[in-house]
Amino acid sequence: MNILDAPESDGLTGLEQMQAMIAAGQRPSICETLGFDLVEVGRGMAAFEGIPGDHVLNPIGSVHGGYAAALLDSACGTAVHTRLSPTQGYTTLELKTSYHRPMTAETGRVRAEANLISFGRRAAFASAALTDADGRVIATATSTLLVFERSA
User: Fold this and answer.
1) CATH code of the domain containing 66
2) Which of 29, 86, 132, 134 could serve as a FRET partner for 50 with CA atoms 20 to 30 Å apart?
3) What is the pTM of this model?
């Protein structure tokens, strides 16, 4: 069961939900699929880390751009999630990703860190950078997200 579906998550803010998920050692299913983890959250920020391996290579032997995009999208979305009230939800409307250097299975641990730019009644904006262990930028992204009231 996902922590967000548990009865005890009722009434928790978005930040409290994410903190509970980390504390419980739970991972969103996309993290299971692609092999990365939510490692840090704060008000308006989130970070994911992963080690790209053979499971995310494209036919020419480099890491598929979708792996970087998934990390960046997850970080941007979670940064917005930390600002949600207990009754709000969100979804990505747009993700603009720029690739700065290649990533291979030998790249090692990467970190996608996002920060909230603005949070309004209907829309939120976030930006993120994906870096390697030496702090070199691999990819960056900006995201526009729709904020909405969840139905009961």
Assistant:
1) 3.10.129.10
2) 86
3) 0.92
